[in-house]
């Protein structure tokens, strides 16, 4: 059994931690009279970033830097450093595993599953999250967009994960986003399980075989599917 798992908003509260970070940035920007950046946040124009392939391979701090440079051409390196430090500190102090993450990973291990993390963003940022969250050893392999050069908007990283374990004929994909995790899972013939939480909660799920509310339900789906196959 091969289970591909997404990280952000599937195993940990990235969106929530990111939201706190952005909220914490607001008083900082206002104090420095950075009103344009403030309005960018206020009007949720960051949604335009969702489909950017390049940004899927970047860290939150790099994204903030990119935006600030776009809005303020002459921003000073000192000011950027100060903002990066704030972003890093607030983000990591708010980042947490969901309570069902470890029981889920333990449950998969108990079923003898190979577990591969398939995640967007840069190497440094994603490895730091794994280190910080203490779950790195659960994975048989890590596939990170910043390392492969392909975001999850392409099927490439899912194919890569599949090729690592060619003899596993039972494949699952668990994630929170339909147009990346679920679509990518379908590309390699996986049973796709959408965990409905985080930033993308409530969006239309076109590529999901199952929509569940948490990882315990996802584990239950995998267990049932596995038993069904064993009987067949
Ligand atoms: Mg995600």
UniProtKB/TrEMBL annotation:
Gene3D superfamilies per UniProt: 1.10.150.520, HAD superfamily/HAD-like (3.40.50.1000)
Keyword Repeat: no
Domain of life from the UniProt record: Archaea
Annotated GO MF terms: metal ion binding; phosphatase activity
Keyword set, alphabetical order: Hydrolase, Magnesium, Metal-binding
GO BP field: small molecule metabolic process
One Pfam family of this chain: Hydrolase
Necessary cofactors: Mg(2+)
InterPro entries, sorted: HAD-like_hydrolase (IPR051400), HAD-like_sf (IPR036412), HAD-SF_hydro_IA (IPR006439), HAD_sf (IPR023214)
Family (UniProt): Belongs to the HAD-like hydrolase superfamily.
Protein's recorded name: Hydrolase
